[in-house]
Amino acid sequence: RIPQVEMQQRAEQNARFDQNKAGGAGICGLLLLVLSCLVMIPFFPFAICASVKVVQEYERAVIFRLGRLVSGGAKGPGIFFVIPCTDEYRKIDIRTKSFDVPPQEILTRDSVTVAMDAVVYYRIFDATMAVANVENADGATRLLAQTTLRNMLGTRSLSEILTGRDHITHEMMEHLDNATDAWGIKVERIEIKDVRLPIQLQRAMAAEAEASREAKAKVIAAEGEMNASIKLKEAADVMSGSPNAMQLRYLQTLTTISAEKNSTIVFPLPIDMLSTAFKK
């Protein structure tokens, strides 16, 4: 489905084609066309070879006849014919292309200098507009992508840049796509590759992150000790109310100690004997 903006631009382009066709090429143009056809007759086999052109599925040919765009838009894919003496044509690749935006030194809103680069994916949806409306569609798109990236990031703080990459790329794609519609170019996707910060700022952010992690670790350790103390108190209260549980715990501790490889022999005394001695 062609967007509404593209349809409107194509309609305007076709209107210009009809106007050029109605105006004609003038008497001189007609004479040149007739002369070219007369010259092609004696050299018919060679003229056919020079007139027949082929464009691939991913290409379109924009034809100029005596300096005017030929009505009907771009030709292709397949075979088309040109008049050798009066026609010129340019092949346009309509496949999706990509280019890297060089790292841009940008001063953010909070006065931090960052370097950011990106990659842009685009394609030509109207070969005629890409030839007639701009001198170098690829170069103009590259320069516009660099200035758009600088303008977009210059109005944001460092935290917004680091956390809002998706929003930045979406807004940048819309702005760049609207600007390149008149050139017959559709921007399909923009991705931010890397954000480079100054060394001092990286160290400061790393120290801040480390301090934050240490603080969280201390809080977690303190919470663990508090929970362990609460559970230990509850266990002591349960054991104090049950002498048999205390004796079983005592025997379990002796079993754990005896499992270790040591030369110490432990002779446990019954807890009842110790409790009787303590009472006396």
From TrEMBL:
Location(s), subcellular: Membrane
Keywords: Membrane, Transmembrane, Transmembrane helix
Keyword Cell membrane recorded: no
TM ranges: 21-44
Gene3D superfamilies per UniProt: 6.10.250.2090, Band 7 domain (3.30.479.30)
Keyword Transmembrane helix in annotation: yes
Domain Band: 50-209
Recorded GO CC terms: plasma membrane
UniProt superkingdom: Eukaryota
Family, per entry: Belongs to the band 7/mec-2 family.
Protein name: Band 7 domain-containing protein
Species in which this protein is naturally found: Ciona intestinalis
